[in-house]
Amino acid sequence: MKIVIIGGVAGGMSAATRLRRLNENAEIIVLEKGPYVSFANCGLPYYVAGEIKERTDLLVQTPEALQARFSLDVRPNSEAVFIDAAKKEVIVQTREEEYILTYDKLILSPGAKPFVPPTIGLAEAENVFTLRSVPDVDAISAFIEKEQPKKAIVIGAGFIGLEMAESLVHRGLDVTIVEKAPHVLPPLDEEMAAYVSKELTANSVKLYTGLAADSFEEKGKVIVLENGKRLESDLTLLSVGVNPETSLAQTASIKTGVRGGILVNEQYETSQKDIYAVGDAIVVKQQINGKDTMIALASPANRQGRQVADVISGLNRKNKGSIGTAIVRVFNLAAASTGLSEKQLQQANETYQVVHIQGKSHAGYYPNAKTIVLKLLFHPTTGKIYGAQAVGGDGVDKRIDIIATAIKAEMTVEDLPELEFTYAPPFGSAKDPVNMAGYAALNLMEGLSDSVQWYELEDKQKEDHVLLDVRNADELTSNGHLKGAVNIPLDSLRERLSEVPKDQPIIVSCHSGLRSYIAERILKENEYEVKNLDGAFALYSTVRPEKVEK
Questions:
Q1: How far apart are CA 79 and CA 133, in angstroms?
Q2: CA distance 531 to 517
Q3: What is the three-class DSSP state of 37?
Q4: pTM of the model as a whole
Q5: Please, what is the end-to-end C-alpha distance for the chain in angstroms?
Q6: What is the pLDDT of residues 453-498, one digit of tens each?
Q7: Angle between helices 190-202 and 536-543 (to 10 degrees)
Q8: Which end of the chain is more exposed for a tag (fewer CB within 10 A), N or C?
Q9: How many CB atoms lie within 10 A of CB 413?
Q10: Which one is catalytic: 22, 42, 65, 448?
Q11: Parallel, antiparallel, or unpaired for β 481-482 and 530-533?
């Protein structure tokens, strides 16, 4: 059997090496249009920062090493430009020649390409870069060394944009981020992204959100925003998303779907016989709701490459879809998500409920415990877990990975308190934040607690709800208080119930939500109409700092 794989890196190389392990006598040819067939593209920003010292560390495998170990015919600088599905032929273009390559099975792993908007003056800019490959990072590094830029603008505040913003700060540049969406890190919901904005600002990164670049002037030295604001830039990184690279697939009349991604079935077969596709270019099922989507992440691409090799080798494998689990480091903060966001649930008109909890990366009394803010989204009656987001200084990856596993296992929020974790003070808490999120969700489902979300509070106050802050007086002095709040410390609440009006709905708040839940239970047992401000003062003051009074 002769198998041709177009595109290396994650999906293509996973397919190639797995195919060899299962088919010693197959002829396996890998075509890569660039010079490097196997490199760590997720490590590129950290090379710019200098955290990865050696460029060679980015190069995972060479054609020579792949030939020696796996007997793979790897051909870099070889671009497939046309597929004749009827004849089972691929036209390949190199620097020296053009030739026809036949196949029995063809695997497409073309990946995605950076989206470059048709902005006025962008084509003439001489200091604008994208980051997707080793040649890209070489160009950026060479520009920094030669031109010694002082000011950098990152257009796009997604994962790569934020990683590059941090990397450029570490290189000594004055960095500004411009993001078209209302907040940085659009995959996260607004209140969770607010913690990321706060961390960026604390590290002297300037932010412009809700704005796009309207034009480039002076060969890229000046960027004009939609509101007329003019920004100077010595170096600009364009990171406004990616599009699936499907131009080659279109030459074979392969069917495409959402956002132009390649349509495949459960065995990764395209609409053309004996042509398969994997990686960032394919449409996948969002496993939680079964809808078509695009998820450009390394882990699914690696899995897909292995699975398509299994399918071609006669093993029973199915493409079950993906849920989209990702993480980014922003200076001293980590931000991660899995599954569906609240925004996505709202757009899909799903019935859902939210709970925010605040915990510690390990036992709070053990040194260097870091705060984790965890958001859990779930169905209010079935407990189905829709998604989760977390931000914090440490341990964020562990909690989101656990919830991602729970989603894949089709667990509900009722299962989360039952999960057993390794515990010793340096590593965790006896009741992990994931357990606590499960408990809090169950309290809502079972009617022991009712919540008000941060974006509902202002309207509730206008509707004559009383906001009761049960923090201690010294906390109000040091951290401030929310406008219009009445303060009765929790430990005094039972003795001061007469001060709480029974003819008005009550919203209770504390710092993180734990004490306010206790206050909620006290008030409900005394027949008050009461709800808990989910996430409490810590969350609300982060996303709406202008509402805090000293």
A1: 15
A2: 9
A3: coil
A4: 0.95
A5: 74
A6: 999 999 999 999 999 999 999 999 999 999 899 999 999 999 999 9
A7: 70
A8: C
A9: 27
A10: 42
A11: unpaired
